[in-house]
Each structure stands twice: as structure tokens, then as C-alpha cells.
Amino acid sequence: MEKKRLYKTEGPYKMICGVCGGVAEYFDIDPTLVRVIWVIAAFMGSFGFWAYVICAAIMPKKSDVYPGY
Q: Cα–Cα distance between 12 and 42 in angstroms, integer?
């Protein structure tokens, strides 16, 4: 069994940087739900915003994790 990897999406689930789409694929949930949760976290304090910025900077793209995608 192949180990799951966290990455930014590059396909139809990508909106800004692909972070929410990648998190949604990793946990196998709807990307819209992840986006809503992330926006709520951003409005409740600066943690959500900074977490997104950090994830966008350090998470690899899907094509980097799975060459040939």
C-alpha cells in the first residue's frame, strides 16, 4: 500500500494556491468544506491566514510528489 502524501492540487480543485484542494484530497472530503473551515479560521484570528500562507510556501505541488501527473 502506497503512503499518502500531502500536496497542493493543480487540477480543477485549485482556486488560489491549491492548498485546500490538497488537504481535501488527503482527507478524502469535499474541498468546499475545507475552504469554508479555512475562511472561518482566518476570520476568528490570524492563525488561519498565516497557516494558509505557510502551507502555500512549503507544500509541494502534486506533479512534484507524483511525477507524470
A: 23
Q: Domain-by-domain residue ranges, the chain?
A: 19-60
pLDDT band, very low/low/confident/very high, at 67 (cuts 50, 70, 90): confident
Q: Is the dihedral of CA 11, 61, 14, 40 positive or negative?
A: positive
Helices marked H in the chain: 19-27, 31-44, 47-58, 62-65
In angstroms, the CA 40 to CA 54 distance is 17
* pLDDT, tens only, 20-65: 999 998 999 998 999 999 999 888 888 888 999 999 999 999 888 8
